[in-house]
Specification:
The protein is α/β, with parallel strands linked by helices. The protein contains 9 helices and 11 strands.
Length: 241
C-alpha cells in the first residue's frame, strides 16, 4: 500500500465514507443502529478493505450536503453522483452504477419526448440539489423548475396538478405509474445519473487508486452481485468500460 495514498484517504487511521441516505436505490435500508446498507456502503467497505483500515460511515440526508462539507474535514470519500456542479469542488471516479432519470406526465399529455418538456408553459417538480436537478438547471432554458425538499412533496404537487411534469429516478416513477395508470413515463431518459466515489480535488494519485478499485468491482461482478443482494438489480445498470 502506497503510504501517501493511505495518508490522503484515511488520515485518521480509518476511512470516513460519506453516504447519501436519500438515494433509496443505493441505500435501501438503515439498520436500527444507524448503519446504512446497500451498494453504496458495500463499495465504501471494499475501498476500506483495500486500504486495510476500518470503514466508518458518515451519513447525510441529502447529496448536496456531502458536497457542501468537502472543505470541512467531515469525510474522506463521498459516494454521490458525478455532476458538473459538484465537479467544481470534487474529483470523481468513473461511475460504478447508472440510474436513469425520466419525466412523468399524465397519460393525456402532449409531451411525448423529453425535449418537449422545455416549454414556457411547463413547470417541473424536482428534488432540490439532486443530481437530476443539477442537470435540469444546466439544460432547461424555458420550463420552470419547482424545487422541493422531498420526493413526497414533489409527488404531491404533481398529483394535485400544481406542476405539469415530475422529474425523478425511473424506479420510483415506475412505482407511481403502477399505482396510477393515468400517468406515463416520457421516453427516452433525459439523463443517466452517474453514481461514483468522490474526493476533495487535487489528489490524482488517490483518484487513480479509487478508479482501479471501481474497475475491479465492476469486472469481478461485485457491483452486480451487490445490487442483486439488495434487490436493486434491474433498477440500476452497471457501466461497461
Amino acid at each position: 500500500m502506497n503510504k501517501a495514498i493511505l495518508r490522503s484517504l484515511a488520515p485518521e487511521g480509518h476511512l470516513r465514507a460519506a453516504i447519501n441516505l436519500s438515494n433509496f436505490l443505493l441505500v435501501p435500508r438503515v439498520m436500527p443502529d444507524g448503519t446504512p446498507t446497500g451498494t453504496s456502503p458495500d463499495v465504501a467497505t471494499r475501498i476500506a478493505r483495500a486500504l486495510d483500515v476500518e470503514c466508518k460511515f458518515v451519513c447525510f440526508e441529502r447529496p448536496g450536503f456531502i458536497a457542501d462539507a468537502v472543505d470541512f474535514d467531515q469525510w474522506d470519500i463521498g459516494n454521490i453522483a458525478d455532476e458538473p456542479a459538484r465537479a467544481a469542488v470534487m474529483d470523481f471516479t468513473n461511475p460504478y452504477a447508472l440510474i436513469d432519470a425520466h419525466f412523468l406526465v399524465r397519460d393525456d399529455s402532449r409531451l411525448r419526448r423529453y425535449q418537449d418538456v422545455d416549454k414556457d408553459k411547463n413547470t417541473v417538480a424536482v428534488l432540490e440539489r439532486s443530481a437530476y436537478d443539477l442537470w435540469l438547471t444546466d439544460n432547461l432554458k424555458h420550463a420552470t423548475i419547482r424545487r422541493v425538499s422531498s420526493m413526497g412533496e414533489a409527488l404531491e404537487l404533481f398529483r394535485k396538478g400544481a406542476v405539469t411534469v415530475l422529474a425523478g429516478l425511473k424506479p420510483s416513477l415506475m412505482e407511481e405509474v403502477d399505482r396510477n395508470p393515468i400517468y406515463r413515463i416520457v421516453e427516452p431518459r433525459f439523463t443517466a445519473i452517474r453514481q461514483a466515489v468522490g474526493i476533495k480535488k487535487g489528489n490524482p494519485e488517490a483518484l487513480q487508486f479509487l478508479n482501479n478499485i471501481v474497475s475491479e468491482l465492476i469486472s469481478t461482478g461485485f457491483i452486480k452481485d451487490s445490487l442483486k443482494r439488495h434487490g436493486m438489480l434491474g433498477k440500476l445498470s452497471v457501466p461497461v468500460f
